[in-house]
Amino acid sequence: MTELMLALDVLTRAEAMDIAEKTHPYIDAIKIGYPLVLGSGLSVARDLSEFDLPLIADFKVADIPNTNRLIAEHVFEAGFSGIITQGFTGRDSVSACVDVAHSAGGKCYVVTEMSHPGALDFMGEGIAERLAALAVECNADGIIAPATRPERVKALREIIGKKKILSPGVGAQGGSAEEIAPLIDSMIVGRSIYNSEDPAKAAQSYSFIRN
Ligand code: O7E
Question: Residue 113: CB within 6 Å of ligand 1?
Fold first, then answer.
């Protein structure tokens, strides 16, 4: 079974609550980040927790260990159950996020290779493998890897074994749900659900990955 994680990149609390209300029976987790939190405040996390789904903070944290720790502490105090960090800042910075997450009973995921074309300028083959190895070394719970490049997801799976792969890029970015779902643990989908005329139906259309 592959989980479906809704990327709730809408800009207001009202929109976020409306889409979550419509889609929550068909999704396994919600991810929010700068678009919604800057638009509505961090307290939106508490409102979304009413849906009783894992709530992941996608701030792609990328700072020195002390600043990462301060950010991660805010995240878990706000009611999130997971945090996403960049890996390129190195082992001490990644470990700071992992340590705070685990102390709070939460999860930490490390970005390896991103899904957009420009990711290959700096994060492609070789570097992404090193970032995946770092995620393992730092005892992170999983990695972020691109649904737009299934062959790269396969290569990164070789490095991380049974740790989780969360994968964005299906739908609006052109990735195929059918192709990527068997390779990953959680498929992250945003626009093709929340911009749909019928978000519930759009979320339900991915039900086949959850069986
Ligand atoms: O393209 P969409 O609308 O389906 O949204 C994809 C979401 O995944 C969006 O929130 C974007 O910021 C995020 N994302 C990527 O698209 N590509 C990446 O490489 C990484 C992420 C991401 O979520 O990283 C942390 C999980």
Answer: no
User: Contact at 8 Å (CB) between 181 and 187?
Assistant: yes
Q: Which two tokens stand for residue 102?
A: 């685990």
Q: Which amino acid is at 40?
A: S
Would you state the structure tokens that stand for residue 205, as one six-digit string?
């259309």
Q: Are strands 3-7 and 186-189 parallel, antiparallel or unpaired?
A: parallel
| Three-state DSSP class for residue 122 | helix
Q: Where is 72: in which H helix or E strand?
A: helix 65-77
pTM of the model: 0.98
Per-residue pLDDT tens digits for 71-93: 999 999 999 999 999 999 999 99
- Known catalytic residue: 60? yes
Q: Is the CB of 28 under 6 A from ligand 1?
A: no
Beta bridge mates, 110 = 85, 143
Angle at 202 between CA 17 and CA 83, to 5 degrees: 55
Q: What is the ipTM of this complex?
A: 0.98
**Bridge partners, residue 4, by sequence:** 187
Please tell me the number of Cα atoms within 13 Å of 99 on its side-chain side.
Answer: 11
Mutate to test the pocket of ligand 1, among 188, 192, 196 (most ligand atoms within 8 A of CB): 188
